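Hey, weird one. I pasted the DNA-binding response regulator sequence into the form twice and got a warning about non-standard characters only the second time. First submission, copied straight from the form history:
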Amino acid sequence: MAEIRILLVDHHLRYRRGLRSILEMEKEMMPVGEVRNIQEIQNVLENTPIDVVVLDLATAGDKAAEAVSTIKSIRPETRVMVLAHEANGRLVEVLAAGADGVLLKDVGASGLVDGIRGLARVGAYLHPAVARVVLEVLRSVLVDGREDAACGEAVGWGGAQVPAAVAAPTPALAVHAPAGEGRDASRGEAGWDWMVDLESEEAGEDRAPGIVAPLTKREFEVLQLLAEGRSNRDIAKALVLSEKTVKNHVASILDKLVVRDRTQAVLVALRRGWVTLS
């Protein structure tokens, strides 16, 4: 498959670096730019060919639909993948504006990669919970042809009426996809909990550290090299260790951070400011 040139749009530096770290582990994924707000998107698009824009919904705020329209006006062929915390009718608005896909932030690293890959390949990709919202809207608009009286106030959507029960999060809609829907149950991925933790941290909320034991100085050195994308063999050469010793250090790091793989370990380290990306 040809390389997928990706632009990341998110106001959190650590989020962007974390996303970039995930994508750079895939040979066909090529993050070619990062911007912190929607005002910076236009300059990048006018000067750099982009296949997929990964747009954080919270970063775009109430101008998400406008941002999507701007992207499409500059580069109609560029696909737009929106990242959101929950499935609600606001996502229908950005889809109507031209977004090509939506992922919720519970999908995990493999879900992110699969979503971008699917979007680049077939031109559209929806998280299952978002697909459900879209179906609710279509049923209301196309089948009923009117607002359900039980839904209360409606909001506008391209001239049609979207029931407020769909436009606002509800227990039925604003949920994470169950195992097997947007989340790789066989791999047991924990999703992007590091993103949620970071938001809690910035809001001053208490949170469980999720670490069962402190890392040693050597383990921090190994973790930094993991963040740089080094293989066990490269790490062994850099630290003058055997590959078996490096494997033992990596296993110990995973156990102490209570994560399942190297990618999750790096994301935890990035969130806590323990490592930097080369």
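That's the output from the first submission. The warning seems to come from a hidden character in my clipboard, not from the data itself. Residues 128-144 form the longest helix (17 residues).
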